[in-house]
Amino acid sequence: MDYQNRAGSKFGGGGVASSSATNADRRERLRKLALETIDLDKDPYFFKNHVGSFECRLCLTVHQNDGSYLAHTQGRKHQTNLARRAAKEQKENKGNDVVPGLLAGVQVRKNVIKIGRPGYRITKIRDPVTRQNGLLFQFQFPEITAGTIPRMQFMNAYQQQVEEPDPNYQYFIVAGEPYETVAVKLQAREIDRREGKLWSWFDEDNKEYWVQLLFKTERDERYSAVPGLAPGRK
């Protein structure tokens, strides 16, 4: 900072900086430091929302520009949350390399060479009792890393950064190292998460990952928040 010619300062003495000027200088130094160490395209917590602002998914903060976000990543709050997340993952002892920003249980990625996409089969199903429509997924992971179990997660249109957000769709994500993460685009209908309706199973002998999901009926969606009629969204 240039402290020259400040009120009350001596020539060459550095001068007295105001608190606002000091904060501005600190943010600029943090931004430059972050630019040297962070690639926003690979930051799992960086998200540009539909109004053009930047969000930190880890700290749930909103920033008006990328410089503000970069300065935030070097601040105490973000660094503390990073440490907490790392400690939580270590405590849970999740040995799988999970894709950041996509799947639950975010971990630091290792340099894993991807070997392509898993094979898959999708079958339309209907519950014979409730008449709910659904899908049965079968993914093949013949070369999956030993001890690894595939993981899944649902993502709404505003969480993904591949396509323009369309609220009429949601995404079903499946990952299993060393295969590439795959996503299936679904209608934005509410998933029935009750026991027996949504389930997954990994056949370790045949290296196949099975997932069944059922959509709620129109009546269930309409009255999902009404006690006694249908379970609410979890």
TrEMBL record:
Molecular function, one GO term: zinc ion binding
Localization (cell): Nucleus
Chief place of localization: nucleus
UniProt-listed InterPro entries: Matrin/U1-C_Znf_C2H2, Matrin/U1-like-C_Znf_C2H2, SF3A2, SF3A2_dom, Znf_C2H2_sf, Znf_C2H2_type
Protein name per the record: Putative splicing factor 3a subunit 2
GO annotation terms (biological process): spliceosomal complex assembly
Protein family: Belongs to the SF3A2 family.
Pfam families on file: SF3A2, zf-met
UniProt keyword annotations, A-Z: Metal-binding, mRNA processing, mRNA splicing, Nucleus, Spliceosome, Zinc, Zinc-finger
Presence of the UniProt keyword Repeat in the record: no
Any one cellular-component term (Gene Ontology): U2 snRNP
Keyword Metal-binding in annotation: yes
Domain Matrin-type residue range list: 54-84
Annotated region (Disordered), positions in chain: 1-25
